[in-house]
From TrEMBL:
UniProt enzyme class: oxidoreductase
Protein name stated in the entry: tRNA uridine(34) hydroxylase
Family label: Belongs to the TrhO family.
Reaction catalyzed: uridine(34) in tRNA + AH2 + O2 = 5-hydroxyuridine(34) in tRNA + A + H2O
Cell membrane in keyword set: no
Origin organism lineage: Bacteria, Bacillati, Cyanobacteriota, Cyanophyceae, Acaryochloridales
Classification via Gene3D superfamilies: 3.30.70.100, Rhodanese-like domain
InterPro entries assigned to the protein according to its UniProt record, in alphabetical order: Rhodanese-like_dom, Rhodanese-like_dom_sf, TrhO, TRHO_N
Molecular-function annotations in GO: oxidoreductase activity, acting on paired donors, with incorporation or reduction of molecular oxygen; transferase activity
EC id: 1.14.-.-
Domain Rhodanese as annotated: residue spans: 115-209
Length: 298
């Protein structure tokens, strides 16, 4: 869920949200900033309902509606409510999606739009997310973080050469700022997928989908498939990079220690630390106890 709306003082709202989390067994993260609210939360249905009853009593969030999915076990282990400068970090002043953003396209109309040869389709997510899955014909900015997106636009896009641009991201929030930035730079027709990839996958059966691969998500599932079920990827403890079946076959892959993406960058001290952690996890499993680090890589 997210909403770009001016919040003069985030601290009272933060304290109220913490109380809701604690009272209803909710886990996950909510970010607050003067520009709005952004969060991913998990818990029992009654707890989610209580959260939105609280939010909808506030005139600023009366039209805030979440994108919902269901999982058999909690995807988060902690509760966090943080106050930040931005609810999605682009690092630029003056980009206000509450004032101006791209045209939202319903998932049911998305296929027709991106099949148009005059439309440049851009995946606004990071490169590692793009590699796990993306839409047919989509261009990657090849970024490591969203703060690099404006540089990609400045160096590789041109309003005269790319008059029609369609963008997408996981849940929609990055596109709000990305499309606002493109409009500021003079791009005439800027479109964005309403509700992001997750909303699209809910709206389309695989046989009608133009999505290829899995979709990275920021929780313990790592990625979901086209049915929004946990996918085949896990997470490397060393570098936090998603791992595929191909990565597991690499000689540089050691569970709990390294993967092909970080093997050459790890120091001996880091290797030793990760190896000790793996040993402690194995010992805890033998005692039928849960090690604190178990959830980091499954």
């Amino acid at each position: 869920m997210y909403k770009f709306i001016y919040i003069e003082d985030c601290l009272p709202l933060k304290e109220q949200l913490i109380e809701i989390f604690q009272a209803h067994n909710l886990m996950g993260t909510i970010l607050l900033a003067t520009e709005g609210l952004n969060g991913t939360v998990a818990g029992p249905a009654s707890g989610i309902e209580a959260l939105f009853q609280f939010l909808h009593q506030d005139s600023r969030f009366v039209d805030l509606w979440p994108k919902l999915s269901y999982v058999p076990s909690p995807p988060f282990k902690r509760m966090k409510v943080k106050v930040r400068r931005e609810i999605v970090s682009m690092g630029l002043e003056g980009i206000d999606p509450a004032e101006k953003t791209g045209t939202h396209i319903d998932p049911k109309n998305w296929n027709e739009l991106i099949r148009d040869p005059e439309v440049l389709v851009i995946d606004t997510r990071n490169q590692y997310e793009y590699e796990i899955g993306t839409f047919e014909g989509a261009k990657s900015p090849e970024t490591e973080n969203f703060r690099q997106f404006p540089q990609f636009v400045d160096e590789q896009l041109n309003p005269k050469e790319h008059p029609k641009v369609a963008m997408f991201c996981t849940g929609g929030i990055r596109c709000e700022k990305a499309s606002a930035y493109l409009l500021e730079q003079g791009f005439e027709e800027v479109y964005q997928l309403e509700g992001g990839i997750l909303n699209y996958l809910q709206a389309h059966q695989p046989e009608n989908s133009l999505w290829n691969g899995e979709c990275f998500v920021f929780d313990e599932r790592v990625a979901v498939d086209e049915q929004l079920q946990p996918g085949s990827h896990t997470m490397c403890f060393g570098c936090r990079h998603p791992l595929s079946e191909q990565d597991y076959q690499s000689e540089k892959y050691e569970p709990g220690i390294s993967c092909p993406h970080c093997f050459d960058q790890l120091t001996e001290s880091q290797r030793a630390s990760f190896a000790e952690r793996r040993l402690q996890m194995e010992l805890a499993a033998q005692r039928s106890q849960k090690h604190l680090g178990t959830s980091e890589e499954t």
